[in-house]
């Protein structure tokens, strides 16, 4: 695949970009050849997003050059980049749910009939042709995008990019929200496109994917270019070292904790549709991992416990006493904290400052008479920045300017400020770089050692196995298996998740009645 | 301005200086308008005229305060003009036709306003009717009630002491201006400095995020819509006292002046940003424009056109500033 072509499809030379208070990129080089998958690695905040935004015409570089086919190019807008054959598939898919697959694929450039009317027949035929060329045969071009699964929507996005004759395809964490089967199909499509000579920039945090899919890897760190490697000639350890600038000995530093009294007990907790009689006990100092497929009802359970969607029946006991959790405010007063799955919409108020976000859950306590005690608030923010090693230009920086890892630390800081007894963490390290991930894991261990009870929802089995004292598996709104830390294996947990009770039992799971 | 701008950018500070900039801008425009209008006619910049304008401004001002809180959360209350009318009728009708003592009738008017606002808030938070739809419905409903009760009869002949509120002075300043000033200070402090105010901004930026933070979103919303009704009721009582009569069409179109003032003051209709200072500058600006233009001989219709243009310009300017900032991010 690596034929030494004279001029690469895309080249960046000495590209720099600064934002208020941050140097996002410093003299970064990058090169993409036709027919290659080039992985872009780096911790969150390393400058990957800025780089792809420059390539796709969202930002203009302060210095340096962008070459397409060896020719200097300057994009005034994303439209210019599109015209140059560059398509970007972002993490949040930008489709119109109310429109059909065909309309989405040809959004902005529909085939025209006479008088400028849209030629619907041609559009449908065109959409079908593109999908067929990707060997996608299970998508009806006239169905509405809103009814499609995430994986299907992503395939529509890819078809949309191809309808614009994209030669350069940028994919930003395309597998972050995908189920396993969709990932396999995505890889097939990516390989097919590579075979056709499309250059693909592939951003992912999942090391296995990088090794499975990419031809070369470029690593960025703190906005600077670290190096490019041929994937086949490098190793996971080398890449991690390049990314973090140090070696990480241990990703999951969970120490065996002394378990205290039961802090949270659930008895036959129910709420339609996805909480169907959940009973569990969480002890002080314990980390319980909650595994399950997407849609198995884990986040729904968390939101029942936290009072967002209060239980319809069943009991919640906090430290042995029956409690009514009717609202998040009530949960907070009872010492329950919830670090939600979706940082952007649930965890943070992104247009507000770091300081105001950290204090958001404790404003009632940070008071001086009827007013917010701004001194205490500033102290809290500064303490959080130090304690969690948050990288921000100041406590007044708006959180949406920060990287995912730093945002997650702010959510964590915000909830730890409430001094909770029970901490529910929903996908605590999703979309976070290796360094921040290790920091969050270390923090979880420390908190458990201090007696906090943690319920951790995660879709990453290594994380579940590494961090949990005990592992519960949820399926279709019920707890279907429980494993002690030592008795758990990836295979057994996966089997329990996928509804193979016999296999799970064989692998040593205790199936609760 | 430009250097200030650049300095703020260099420090990487976000939205607070930006907000201040809008208000600084508005204050500058206001001063320019003052100078311009004063140069046009010597009747404009006199203590007597300005105090009188303050008197005329009070009703819009009083209602604009809770409207700011509501728009900060991303909501809207279109029914304020109708609530004002309804409260005016309740005051006049219960005093004249039911023989309720006037002080008690005033309290009843305030109570009805509060209840009307509470009904808005209850439907918006419990039944989850969008604020725009709910208050559009009550805009018609409350006005209809007012007309039904009054049967197109106006009420006159209030006792002299009652006019102290709308026509009298305290230490040389119109009574209602004192009330407005106190209300401005209280609501400004609530919005800027209390957990409640912070919660309103959070709701406006991201309601789900606010709920997940344990902020009692529904209770906060219920409070501000109820407050809006109460202030519309107060404005209604003052209105009746100022013009000495009660009619069922009082306050028609008030919501437009109020929303114009709030938006002119830099509060984003999408929620999350805005300050009380901006709103105060907004309603002062609208009142002075109306008065100044009238004094320089511009006809009523043209005045509305000018206010519309000023509103559009101010929004363009704000958008321009915001785009320049985000374009550089």
Present the secondary structure layout.
The complex is a heterodimer of chains A (513) and B (329).
Chain A: E1 10-19, E2 22-32, E3 37-41, H1 48-55, E4 63-68, E5 71-72, H2 78-83, E6 86-89, H3 101-105, H4 120-133, H5 150-163, E7 168-172, H6 180-195, E8 199-203, H7 207-213, E9 216-221, E10 224-230, H8 236-244, E11 262-271, E12 275-283, E13 287-292, H9 298-305, E14 313-318, E15 321-323, H10 328-333, E16 336-339, H11 343-347, H12 354-358, E17 367-368, E18 371-372, H13 374-387, H14 404-416, E19 422-426, H15 434-449, E20 453-457, H16 461-467, E21 470-475, E22 478-484, H17 490-497, H18 501-506
Parallel strand pairs in A: 3-8, 3-9, 6-7, 7-8, 13-20, 13-21, 16-19, 19-20
Antiparallel strand pairs in A: 1-2, 1-4, 4-5, 9-10, 11-12, 11-14, 14-15, 17-18, 21-22
Chain B: H1 2-10, H2 15-40, H3 47-72, H4 80-96, H5 102-127, H6 131-150, H7 164-167, E1 169-170, E2 173-174, H8 175-193, H9 195-205, H10 207-212, H11 217-243, H12 254-264, H13 276-295, H14 300-327
Antiparallel strand pairs in B: 1-2
Helix pairs in contact in B: 2-13, 3-8, 3-9, 3-11, 3-12, 3-13, 4-5, 4-6, 4-11, 5-6, 5-11, 8-9, 12-13, 13-14
Keywords:
heterodimer; A: 513 residues; alpha/beta; Rossmann fold; 3 domains; six-stranded mixed β-sheet; 22 strands; B: 329 residues; mainly alpha; ABC transporter involved in vitamin B12 uptake, BtuC; two-stranded antiparallel sheet; 1% strand; disordered N terminus
What does this protein structure show overall?
- The complex is a heterodimer of chains A (513) and B (329).
- Helices cover 33% and strands 25% of the residues of chain A.
- Chain A is an alpha/beta fold and 513 residues long.
- Chain A has 3 domains: 235 residues, P-loop containing nucleotide triphosphate hydrolases (Rossmann fold, 3-Layer(aba) Sandwich), CATH 3.40.50.300; 182 residues, P-loop containing nucleotide triphosphate hydrolases (Rossmann fold); 68 residues, no CATH class.
- A 6-stranded mixed β-sheet of chain A has the order 6-7-8-3-9-10, with helices on both faces. Chain A has a 6-stranded mixed β-sheet with strand order 16-19-20-13-21-22, sandwiched between helices. In chain A, strands 2-1-4-5 form a 4-stranded antiparallel β-sheet, covered by helices on one side.
- Chain A starts with 9 loop residues before the first strand and ends in a 7-residue tail after the last helix.
- The mean pLDDT of chain A is 86.
- With 329 residues, chain B is an all-alpha fold.
- Helices cover 76% and strands 1% of the residues of chain B.
- Chain B has 14 helices and 2 strands.
- Chain B is globular.
- Chains A and B meet through helix 10, helix 11 and strand 18 of A and helix 9 and helix 10 of B.
């Amino acid at each position: 695949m690596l034929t030494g072509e004279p001029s690469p499809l895309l080249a960046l030379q000495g590209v720099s970009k600064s934002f208020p208070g941050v140097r996002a990129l410093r003299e970064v080089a990058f090169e993409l050849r036709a027919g290659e998958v080039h992985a872009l690695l780096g911790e969150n905040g390393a400058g990957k997003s800025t780089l792809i935004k420059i390539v796709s015409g969202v930002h203009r570089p302060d210095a340096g050059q962008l070459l397409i086919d060896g020719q200097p190019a300057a994009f005034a807008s994303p439209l210019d980049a599109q015209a140059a054959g560059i398509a970007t598939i972002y993490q949040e898919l930008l489709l119109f749910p109310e429109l059909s697959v065909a309309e989405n694929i040809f959004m902005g450039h529909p085939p025209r009939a006479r008088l400028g009317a849209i030629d619907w027949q041609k559009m449908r035929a065109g959409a079908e042709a593109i999908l067929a060329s990707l060997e996608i045969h299970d998508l009806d071009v006239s169905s509405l995008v809103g009814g499609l699964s995430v994986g299907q929507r992503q395939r529509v996005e890819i078809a949309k990019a191809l309808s614009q004759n994209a030669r350069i395809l940028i994919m930003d964490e395309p597998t972050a929200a995908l189920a396993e089967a969709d990932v396999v199909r995505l890889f097939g499509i990516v390989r097919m496109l590579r075979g056709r000579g499309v250059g693909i920039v592939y951003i992912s945090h999942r090391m296995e994917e990088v090794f499975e899919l990419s031809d070369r890897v470029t690593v960025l760190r703190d906005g600077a270019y670290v190096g490019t490697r041929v994937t086949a000639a490098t190793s996971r350890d080398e890449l991690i070292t390049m990314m973090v600038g140090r070696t990480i000995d241990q990703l999951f530093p969970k120490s065996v904790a002394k378990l205290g009294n039961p802090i949270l007990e659930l008895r036959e907790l129910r709420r339609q549709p996805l909480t169907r009689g959940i009973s569990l006990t969480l002890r002080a100092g314990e980390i319980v991992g909650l595994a399950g497929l997407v849609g198995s009802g884990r986040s729904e359970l968390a939101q029942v416990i936290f009072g967002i969607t209060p239980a319809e029946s069943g009991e919640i006991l906090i430290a042995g006493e029956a409690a009514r959790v009717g609202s998040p405010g009530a949960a907070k007063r009872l010492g329950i904290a919830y670090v939600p799955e979706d940082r952007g919409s649930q965890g943070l108020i992104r247009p507000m400052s770091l300081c105001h976000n950290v204090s958001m859950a404790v404003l009632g306590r940070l008071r001086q008479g009827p007013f917010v005690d701004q001194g205490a608030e500033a102290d809290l923010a500064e303490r959080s920045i130090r304690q969690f090693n948050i990288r921000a230009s100041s406590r007044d920086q708006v959180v949406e300017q920060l990287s995912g890892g730093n945002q997650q630390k702010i959510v964590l800081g915000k909830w730890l400020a409430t001094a909770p007894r029970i901490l529910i963490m929903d996908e605590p390290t999703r979309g976070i770089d290796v360094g921040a991930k290790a920091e969050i894991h270390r923090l979880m261990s420390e908190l458990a050692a201090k007696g906090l009870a943690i319920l951790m929802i995660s879709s990453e089995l290594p994380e579940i196995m590494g961090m949990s004292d005990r592992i519960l598996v949820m399926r279709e709104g019920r707890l279907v298996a429980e494993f002690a830390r030592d008795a758990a294996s990836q295979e057994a947990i996966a089997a329990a998740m996928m509804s193979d009770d016999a296999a799970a039992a064989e692998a040593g799971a205790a199936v609760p009645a | 301005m430009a250097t200030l701008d650049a300095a703020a950018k260099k420090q990487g500070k976000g939205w607070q200086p930006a907000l201040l900039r809008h208000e600084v801008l508005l204050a500058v425009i206001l001063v320019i308008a003052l100078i311009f209008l004063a140069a046009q006619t010597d009747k404009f910049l006199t203590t007597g005229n300005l105090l009188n304008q303050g008197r005329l401004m009070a009703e819009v001002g009083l209602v604009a305060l809770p409207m700011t809180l509501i728009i900060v959360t991303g909501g809207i209350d279109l029914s304020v003009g109708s609530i004002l009318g309804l409260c005016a009728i309740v005051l006049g009708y219960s005093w004249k036709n039911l023989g309720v003592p006037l002080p008690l009738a005033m309290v009843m008017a305030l109570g009805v306003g509060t209840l009307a606002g509470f009904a808005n808030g209850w439907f918006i938070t419990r039944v989850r009717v969008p604020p725009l739809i709910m208050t559009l419905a009550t805009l018609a409903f409350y006005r209809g009630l007012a007309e039904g009760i009054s049967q197109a009869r106006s009420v006159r002949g209030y006792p002299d002491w009652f006019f102290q509120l709308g026509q009298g002075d305290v230490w040389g300043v119109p009574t209602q201006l004192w009330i407005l000033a106190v209300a401005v200070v209280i609501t400004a402090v609530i919005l800027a400095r209390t957990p409640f105010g912070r919660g309103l901004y959070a709701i406006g930026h991201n309601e789900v995020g606010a709920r997940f933070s344990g902020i009692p979103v529904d209770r906060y919303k219920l409070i501000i819509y109820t407050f809006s009704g109460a202030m519309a009721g107060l404005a209604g009582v003052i209105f009746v006292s100022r013009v000495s009569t009660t009619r069922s069409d009082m306050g028609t179109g008030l919501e437009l002046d109020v929303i114009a003032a709030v938006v002119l003051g830099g509060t984003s209709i999408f929620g999350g940003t805005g300050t009380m200072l901006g709103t105060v500058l907004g309603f002062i600006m609208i009142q002075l424009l109306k008065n100044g233009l009238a004094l320089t001989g511009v006809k009523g219709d043209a005045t509305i056109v000018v206010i519309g243009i000023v509103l559009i310009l101010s929004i363009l300017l704000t958008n321009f500033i915001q785009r320049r900032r985000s374009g550089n991010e």
